[in-house]
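Annotated sample (chain length 1304).
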Amino acid sequence: MLINSNGIPAGVSAHNEAGGTNNDAVTARAYQTEMYEKSIKENIVVVMDTGSGKTLVAALRIMHELARIDSGKKIWFLTRTVELCRQQCKTLQQQIRSVEIRSFSSRDNVDGWRSQKLWDAALDNVRVAVATYAVLQNALSNGFVKMASIALIVFDEAHNCVGKSPGSKIMNQFFWRDKGAGRPVPRILGLTASPVNKVDGKKLKSLEDTLNAACKTPRLHRENLQTHVKRPTLTIEYYSLSPTSVSLASITSMRAILDGLDIATDPDIIRWRTENTERSREKLKQALKTKKTFVREQLRVFCERAEAMCEQLGTLAADFYIAKVTSLIIESASAPSESCFLTWDYSSRIYLSRLLKRVVVDPRALARVPSSASISAKVERLARILCSHYRGGDDGSRGIVFVTERATLVVLHHLLSLHPDLSKLFRVGAVVGSSKHDRGRRDLGDIFNPAEQSKVLDQFRNGKLNLLVATSVLEEGIDVSACNLVISFDPPASPKSFIQRRGRARKSGSEYFVLIDDEERDKATDWEGIEEQLKAQYDRDDRDCAIGNQMADRETSDRETSDREFTEPTTGAILDMENAKGRLQRFCAVAGLRRYSDNQPFYVYEELANQPPPASDGELPLMRAKVVLPASIPYSLRITWSKQAWRSEQNASKDAAFEAYMRLYDAKLVDENLLPLTHEELGVQDESSMIDIREQFKPWARTDNSRQGEPQTYVMLLEDSKGVAQFKFHVVVPVELGKPQHFQFYSAYGEQRRARLSPLHSDPSIEEQPRQVVAFRNSQGLKTLTQMNRSSSSTRLLVKACTSKLMYKLEAHLVAKELQTRLPVVNGSNSDVVDLIRSAITTPVRAEPEYQKLEFLGDACLKLLTTVHFATKYPLWPEGYLTAGRARVISNSRLCRAALERELDPFLLTKGHNAEEWRQVDPDNVDKTDTLIAEDPSSRRVARRTLAHAAKALIGAGKQAGGWGTALTWTKHLVGDVDLPSLEVGRRQLFDVSASDAALPAHLGTVETLAGYVFHKKALAVQALTHSSYFAAEAHGCLDRLAFLGNAVIESIVSEAIFSLSAGASAGGASGPRTSCGSMTVHRAALVNRQYLGYVALEWHVSRTRTDVQQAGASPRGPFREKRYSVDFPLCRFLQHCSAGVTDEMAALETRYAELRDETKEAVASGAAYPWLQMARLGASDFCADVVEALVGAVYVDSGSLAACEALLERMGVLPYLRRILRDGVDTVHPKEQLQAAAGSQAIRYEVEKGAATGSGKQDVSCVVYVGSRVVAEVDGGLSEDEVQIKAAAQAVLFLSSSAKASD
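Output written by the structure step:
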């Protein structure tokens, strides 16, 4: 890199913060050059005013570093916020155009990058990474980025590197650790306008100590700095708030509701008492002790905030705020799925909406224009400042009003937008920072919608908006150079806040106003005086030597660490007391995610029985904490105690979380980056759809001349399409064919013919020897001789077509026979095994559908074998891990790679029959080579799924040839990822590792009667009926893993039944017609899906007799009579849970089923089509399907018998319905798939719209279907997206069908 005479890297395009962004190159000013040169000599924190051009200093420093480091090192530029990250990345890209500069923030979904491969790919060729502090800290903590790979770190807004902030952790956990160990560390450059908040030398030293850098400000060219920094004029505006004489009915009524609340009616209290789990009992105890619940606290804070709003902003503000919040919460209760409070429990929304309906609300406040009587003196003063300092014209006013709270921002924005004077002058926008409430359970009074601010800053920059109301998010670094007016509606929280806010007004002649209550006049802060004192701390000439000594002392001394720490040896990822709770929470969110279950860890604290004497008065007692993980985590890992006792709950919980996470690491439930195993590690990898494979194996190379010298003669009988014999001839082939062959072919004229081939000695009906010999030869040099009594040209063409098809089939037979030698040996008929293998390796181009049926069967076999393998190999994995791991093994991409690794691809039969490649030759010169046609030796190109399907088909062939033993043996040979001695051994391991046996509760004993099966280990039955929310799940586990197994068992049994019944074989006394391969898959999908299995859980029931005692006469003493009737208890009612959500959903589901039961049962019993619409309207929840699958899985583990599971599916009605589908030809194709077929290549688009919710919470859902650009169907009145899409698809199919008929 070239350096100019000023020591500046040549060719830099500078960005001048004071004057905005210029496309033309800007010469670095003297003070910027001074700071750049200092940054080269040592680590420094550049302290300069906002708008002075600190970013240019950083750009110069970055270019200097790029010139001296190798390509393996990177530079990280860190910002505090996502918006700053985006802005600074754009700035650096303008200034440094010769290298790749990229931003990394939550907008890039960096949190989802959970593999080294992803990080390496993202950082490939990137020389400068611009990121938020948290992104780099997490990447270092997870071992994806190493400190040794970084040449320079630039900390923008470096004053934030204090305490336990991400910037501080980067330095303390990684920089100083590596530096202390003698490993290379990056250079440091900090940028700030105010390094500390208080006049305290210790704070400044702590920042410098953390960053290993000295704070520096320009000295030699200070006047040059002051010349270019345009500080606004500071004005302190005082206002006087008069006590509000008006008593607002809204606030009064709300305070009365809060004061009269009965905590016993609170939904949290009711739920915790109902659940009666350890977790709920702990929460109940704390709530009753503190009188705090979620709803109660929300209402209290809302009330206090409204009272403060009334005082600070005026009566209209309070009325608007209350009306807005109450309308939102009432709407959220009536529209459960559409609400800004969606993350709240529905019961909490209902309860709070009922309370807020009692608030006296003035609905006119939502649109009322502010007046001097309805706004406070503070707002009135703000309005006067804005009006008096408005500048007209294109280059007019651009202002920012800073407030503290988000709720204040929304209300003030509303008042300013409707103000009769201001609305004519200003176009107002609102900006807040990201908040945990945007992602989690938001506060009741937080009515700001973050989606509304996505383009506000850009609109402010380009002048579409000229006034912003903002929180502290706009204080730091956001570049709006045209701003000329800043107003602190709420006083700055600190000197740093004062300096940062002032720095937003950069335009010449700008003004900065701070509003102060007149009662605080005597306590008003001298902001500028404090700023000068702060500057004096880092502006002394005698500091350099002292700082150097401090740095040296630090390098030679041991640095304090925070309690325990674990460093992963391969990646360097760190687990410590500070990040353990966060890591544990993320793990549970990934691995324990279940609807209707508490998916987060919770902590219980216990004081030690034997307490040591207190060291001082008021000292807290020692306690230990235990952390309990969600029930979907294996029960052996669910509970972990802290290693030692602590005097604070915070430290005790950190200790317990650390110990729990170490147990997860030891159990291999987190990876080497200390992150939950991701779908990339467990699941399917995306790869291109096509692949080149080797040319087809040539079996004729094995039939050498010596073997061809002993040809085999066969008799060929030709028949027409009706089976009428035409004539016979002899054919001589180079190898023995084995059993008699028969096949179909087409003549040269396209006529269908059939041929039957048998050995010569087996057909004595030929009266005379054929007299004429005809020879044929193909492009591979393969020859065949035929002998016939008659030899017309048409006969020779017919014989050629027949003989070529024979050799085509013979080649496939020999290829399959060769592959058989490379597969494990199978007991049974050799010819049958070869035929199965031949079918398995045949591709669609050969028009032989049997391979697709074997692939259908093999797919189910592979899924069951892989399921048992993962369940036995990883007994501690939660169901989500198991599902993702299985998906990886059975995915097309993995099976394709396995087929290539085991050299299966040369045996794939991809060539169709072509009689024209054979030509008639002179029988006497048949061996001449000059008649050969060169064959293209190039590789073949096929879809990945073709190889994958062949592997599955071979597994299906193995199942047909030798049962489950052969299917497993061939699976292990072909796939390699399934390490299972046998299906029974795996099943037995699952039986042994399941929970210790326990008595079956009496109320669950009915399930054994319903199932017609008595469990040997009752704990399996209990587990199958236990939801993850149930309080006793920690003793024996929940149903998740059994459901994972049961799903594969059901699919295997249904697939084998379809395979058998579709071939016309007898099964259970019934036989079915042959079924196409595509229909087999569709039938299976109709029976093995969540909606149908959920229907089974509702329909399959046990009946109990109920007796009512009724009074027969008028006398209270009788007489009485008994009335007996039957009550159905479906399987889903036996599900044990402690979830109010499951209770509510179960009740709603049974109500829906009562309405739909008759028509659904009729459709199942006799309908011509599968009831897709009824299933969608029913909308059975996943837990219904889970209990069916889990029960089947439990029977399999307990019995070791697929026949027992088959009997269970028979009792459930699954297999009887399957037989009816096959027997009656029930149409099981989904309406959306029917529409896809009818539309052909045209694009289909579904537009779903949800109407307003009714009082019961139901919504009117409508759907419009487009095929291409044409509307083909419209439906409304539905209750769910799925329902209206199915209705619309069916309607669209009818429309397209009628349109096609009309056009014909």
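Annotation: Residues 631 and 1201 are 28 Å apart (CA to CA).
Annotation: The mean pLDDT is 81.
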